[in-house]
Write a structure and sequence with these properties.
alpha/beta, 7-stranded parallel beta sheet, 15 helices
Length: 350
């Protein structure tokens, strides 16, 4: 269910070919879909990977339409300053999507948090050295915008996760939240200190839909834990609900995510932080939707039918992005349809 760009591009297809964009983490879920979206719209793409020589893992990128003519793969490591120089050289903009995800690490504080912050600064330093880069779009998460104040009922761009609170939580998810919070703040601060390099951040909820990767992304596993019955993944879905909205979860289709990235890269007045959230639904409503569309699957998760889990019902405001002119394409039903059909294709639900 692919969709073309839902914005009016600033360039024609022919002019797009003169625009060169770098995507860090090009082999990941969002990164690979962003590479696909950029190629479809005529751009030349430099994608960074930890191991571009691994053809079995990266061949799907090279098979994308337009890849042979307009895609180059580069080796880069977030922990090595200067390793992004070659990939970013000559680029007009950079999408910094890559993030460390070593949840099995014995030292997550160092390998996730420190690597995320230092890696972001390494990418931005490469952008500054390149001189051709006019804008960086940093991919963040609602994990960096958790309002622990129960009286705050609207989550917007002014909300930041409290590090003092998050550090008291004893699970690996808190390292991801800490990493995203610190890395996004570091990116925006770098932009303030280097005004010639416009840094914009995009704050995402749970991303689902189909994928270009050969393995299923964690976020899709989490959404479909209702029918796979995995207790750890369902627990993560509940945590996402309780931490952000109190009684519901926010979902967005990966294509809407990529369209929003390109929209913010190309919009002349985009600046600062943008929350990008397409849909919010309760977990019982999500279960009903899955059962209605796919009656062959049983809802295995034990649903919490209580009205509010965290003591408050919040809403997420994506008004800043909408006011800029961005339009979402995908409903909750389409997010679920693409997610289920992707899992069916992989044989996970058979």
């Amino acid at each position: 269910m692919a969709a073309k760009m839902n914005i009016d591009p600033l360039f024609t297809q022919q002019e797009n070919r003169r625009q060169v964009y770098c995507v860090t983490g090009g082999g990941g879920y969002i990164g690979s879909w962003l590479v696909k979206t950029l190629l479809e719209n005529g751009y030349t793409v430099h994608a960074t990977l930890r191991d571009p020589g691994n053809t079995s893992k990266n061949s799907f990128l090279l098979s994308l339409p337009g890849a042979q003519e307009r895609l180059r793969l580069f080796k880069a490591d977030l922990c090595e300053e200067g390793s992004f120089d070659s990939a970013i050289h000559g680029c007009h903009g950079v999408f910094h999507v890559a993030t460390p995800m070593e949840f099995g690490s014995k030292d997550p504080e160092n390998e996730i948090v420190n690597a995320a912050v230092q890696g972001t600064l390494n990418v931005l330093k490469s952008c500054k050295r390149a001189e051709s880069v006019r804008r960086v779009v940093f991919t963040s998460s609602l994990s960096a915008a958790i309002p622990f104040d129960k009286s705050l009922l609207v989550i917007d761009e002014s909300c930041w996760t409290s590090l003092d609170v998050i550090r008291k939580i004893n699970n690996h998810g808190r390292f991801y939240a800490e990493a995203k919070t610190l890395a996004e703040k570091a990116a925006l601060q770098f932009g303030k200190e280097n005004p010639s390099l416009a840094v914009v951040s995009i704050v995402l909820p749970i991303v689902a839909g189909t994928s270009r990767t050969s393995t299923a992304p964690f976020s899709i596993h989490m959404v479909l834990s209702l029918i796979t019955g995995n207790p750890q993944l369902y627990g993560s879905l509940l945590q996402a609900r309780d931490g952000f909205l109190g009684d519901s979860v926010s979902l967005i289709h990966v294509q809407d995510v990529c369209n929003a990235h390109v929209f913010l890269m190309e919009h002349p007045t985009a600046e600062g932080r943008y929350i990008c959230c397409g849909n919010a639904t309760t977990i019982p409503e999500l279960a009903h939707l899955i059962s209605e569309h796919y009656p062959q699957y049983t809802i295995k998760a034990k649903l919490d039918e209580s009205v509010v889990a965290a003591g408050c019902a919040r809403t997420i405001s994506a008004k800043k992005l909408s006011d800029l002119g961005f339009i979402y394409k995908y409903s909750v039903a389409q997010v679920i349809d693409d997610s289920v059909q992707f899992f069916q294709k992989l044989g996970i639900l058979n």
